[in-house]
Design goal:
heterodimer; A: 434 residues; mainly alpha; ABC transporter involved in vitamin B12 uptake, BtuC; 18 helices; B: mainly alpha; two-stranded antiparallel ribbon; 1% strand; globular
Chain lengths: 434, 336
């Protein structure tokens, strides 16, 4: 940490402090919590792009998979759902995987020609209909199981803290499958493929109601271990006494304490991830990665297994994003597949890495904090600015109402301008790679 | 067995919509592929260029409508289109001058340019939303149908109707004209040839005295025109909504990549491949099969392979399937 970097972090910390002092600590803390989550996602992107030069624009998909893992791990089991169709769903999915596995094996074993094409089509079509025949009735049965309240398969009711690594695991598993198929693609082709895969993940989560109720959303996910519920705090006598002694408003204080508890947990995860990433970056493995990034051909000539390393780093980075996605879902207490958009969950995260400094873990963290703060605060600032501009205009004029309605969209413009300015005048980011 | 009715249902619900959608995607993908060929990056701002161009078209359309100008049976938007193309081209040239040129001079890596285009996406997206808002806009006027379902039934005596919306006919006619003009330009004119030379081998083209700034400027102008046309056709056929246009980037990229980035023929083929697979996989085949199969075998269910919510998923599954077997697309695009 050079003095310059410390100053940058201090400046960003100051932004949060100013928010706390001049607006409210509640707001500052909620921005902080999401900023930590975003910083972890940015680290995941940095591991892929900064270490290995992989251009993955499917971040949204991995974050959503992390959220899905939270629902599957930590939500309460749904009465009767497993009996209704659990085995059928599992069997159906296994059949689907087996079909693809057989098709891949056949493709590798058989020699090219019409015979192989015909067999492959037969296997895939047969497998698809078999899968639908087993899978569909099970899904219908699960979704018919008290559909107003549930209609999903339910979770294991495990603690939320276990759900976070599970989110990483689920994202890693998906990354393995995606990496196996798509990592051979060249730069832009890989980018567009991952962009699409993320859309597929969201489409599946929106439509497969048995999984996590789709767009009907899952709410009231459990909190992680040390974080209390606001209502419990407000009922507990010791807390009320303590708040009364200091003259705090119990409702506001309880919500701040909850946010502080989250912030503590999240910071712990962030520091662990930073520490591990830094260790990895300094290790021979990290040097191999950078060698591959800087010159793939010569790294391969030196006997480095480029494909394998790429797959490895793709899985690792995606797992980090998955963990952050799981943390975010726990923080929100709900999973809303409809709210995932590439602008917010892929491109904004990329922007954090670029602004912070690609290839530098601390840069990604700094970018995460700074950009998320801006993302939230630019909107009120835009409203304030428009308010100042339109103050002189008569009320109800067309231009005034139009400007006021449109002010919210200025945040996209501002973010774009910031990104372009950083790319132009500080192309290596605020904290460049050493 | 009732082959004729089955064919009419198929044409009405699958073939015609897919052809119109495919033509819109193809024109959009041509823009992406041209930028990739000449400027060598995937332009993430293309969807928003479409939205921007369409927005200007809509604004002019409203103005024309307010003045009482109409285009007879054709949509007024077609009158506004040339003006919108000029303004969009100016805007896009402005972004090139302000943003992209700097990185081109530096010979920046592709990934940097992609991220730069992301910044432009943010800005254009914000501007569009700021000016016209986020709501859906319908701006199609004029005749609605070339052939209406009822008219078709009366004329042929079949029990199924066939409707061709005028927007679909306009889409197809425009697409044919645009594609013919573009290929004539690329293959026959001096500027077009210099563009292709630049795309094939930049250094060699520079050595032969081709002015790169001119090639790039012409490319941006053509791209702006293609994006505006594609956006307006899509908007006339369906409706205009900034968010939908941002999302259109996905099938358009898929089309360009399936065909092979940098290959104009590939972009057109890719557009139709994506459109047909999207429509066919998400169409409920019950009615068609009901006519084709004997009554005892007629399906009870919808016979829909996937619900319509999966349409983006379909285009990208096709994309990945194609890339697995042909890593640079059907028509062997380039990779930088």
């Amino acid at each position: 940490m050079t003095p310059r970097n410390l100053a940058l972090f201090a400046a960003v910390a100051l932004l949060f402090l100013i928010t706390g002092v001049f607006q409210s600590w509640n707001l500052a803390l909620s921005i902080l919590n999401m900023a930590i989550v975003s910083a972890i996602m940015a680290m995941g992107v940095n591991i892929q792009c900064g270490y290995a030069g992989l251009f993955n624009v499917g971040i949204m998909g991995f974050a959503a998979l992390g959220g899905l893992a939270v629902v599957l791990t930590s939500s309460q089991p749904v009465d009767g759902a497993w009996r209704a169709g659990g085995p059928g769903i599992v069997l159906g999915l296994l059949l689907g995987v087996a079909t693809i596995g057989i098709a891949v094996a056949l493709y590798r074993r058989m020699s090219m020609g019409p015979a192989r094409t015909a067999t492959l089509i037969a296997v895939l079509a047969g497998g698809f209909f078999l899968y639908r025949a087993v899978f569909d009735p099970a899904v219908v049965a699960v979704e018919a199981n008290s559909p107003e309240a549930f209609g999903n398969i339910g979770g294991f009711g495990l603690p939320a803290l276990i759900a976070w690594p599970m989110g990483g695991l689920l994202a890693a598993a998906a990354a393995w499958a995606i990496g196996k198929t798509a990592l051979g693609l060249r730069s832009d082709y890989l980018a567009i493929a991952t962009l699409g895969i993320a859309e597929i993940v969201i489409a599946v989560m929106k439509n497969e109601d048995w999984l996590a109720r789709g767009v009907k959303n899952i709410t009231q996910l459990p909190r992680p271990w040390p974080v209390p519920q606001e209502v419990d705090l407000q009922k507990s006598q010791p807390f009320l006494d303590w708040a009364g002694r200091w003259g705090f408003d119990p409702v506001l204080t309880s919500s701040i304490i909850v946010k502080l508890a989250y912030a503590g947990l999240f910071l712990t995860v962030l520091l662990i991830v930073v520490w591990l990433s830094e260790r990895a970056l300094q290790s021979p493995w990290g040097r191999t990665m950078r060698a591959i990034r800087d010159n793939e051909v010569s790294a391969e000539a030196m006997g480095k297994y480029v494909t394998g390393r790429h797959l490895q780093v793709f899985i690792l980075g995606s797992a980090v994003v998955g963990i952050a996605g799981a943390m975010m879902t726990t923080l929100d207490g709900q999973l809303t597949p409809g709210s995932y958009s590439p602008l917010r969950y892929t491109f904004l995260i990329w922007m954090m890495v670029i602004v912070g400094g690609s290839g530098n873990n601390w840069g990604a963290v700094l970018g995460g904090f700074l950009i998320y703060w801006l993302w939230i605060m630019v909107e009120p600032m835009g409203l304030w600015l428009i308010g100042a501009v339109t103050a002189g205009m008569a009320d109800g004029t067309w231009l005034k109402t139009h400007l006021q309605d449109g002010a919210a969209h200025m945040r996209l413009v501002t973010m774009g301008v910031i990104l372009l300015l950083v790319l132009r005048f500080s192309p290596k980011g605020l904290i460049p790679e050493k | 067995m009732d082959l004729l009715n089955a064919l009419v249902v198929f044409t009405n619900f699958v073939f015609i919509p897919a052809v119109a959608y495919g033509a819109q995607l193809a024109i959009g993908a041509l823009g992406v592929t041209l930028i990739y060929g000449i400027l060598r990056f995937s332009n993430f701002a293309h969807g928003d260029t479409m939205a921007f161009g369409t927005m200007i078209t809509i604004l002019f359309t409203w103005w024309f409508q307010a003045m009482g100008i109409s285009f007879g049976p054709l949509p007024t938007a077609l009158l506004a289109l040339p003006l919108a193309i000029v303004l969009t081209a100016l805007f896009v040239l402005g972004t090139d001058r302000l943003v992209y040129r700097f990185y081109r001079r530096q010979r920046a890596a592709t990934s940097i340019l992609v991220i730069v285009s992301l910044g432009v996406t943010f800005i254009m997206n914000g501007i569009t939303r700021f000016i016209i808002g986020t709501e859906e806009q319908n701006f199609a006027d004029g005749e609605r149908f070339v052939i209406s379902a009822a008219g078709f039934r009366a004329a042929t005596g079949l029990s199924e109707g066939l409707a061709i919306k005028s927007t679909q006919a306009i889409t197809l006619a425009t697409a044919v004209i645009v594609v013919a003009a573009l290929f004539w330009f690329l293959n026959r004119t001096r500027t077009g040839k210099s563009m292709r030379a630049f795309s094939d081998n930049e250094d060699l083209a520079l050595l032969s005295g081709i002015n790169p700034e001119r090639v790039v400027a012409v490319t941006w102008i053509i791209t702006a025109a293609l994006a505006t046309i594609a956006g307006v056709l899509y908007g006339l056929d369906k409706s205009f909504k900034p968010f939908t246009y941002f999302q259109l980037l996905l099938p358009i990229f898929a089309a360009a990549v399936v065909g092979g980035l940098g290959s104009p023929v590939g972009a057109i083929a890719g557009g139709f491949v994506i459109a047909f697979s999207e429509v066919m996989v998400t169409y409920a085949w019950k009615k068609v099969l009901g006519y084709l199969l004997p009554e005892s075998l007629a399906p009870e269910a919808l016979v829909q392979l996937l619900t319509t919510d999966y349409k983006f998923a379909v285009s990208f599954t096709i994309l990945i399937a194609v890339l697995l077997f042909r890593p640079t697309g059907l028509f062997r695009g380039k990779s930088v």
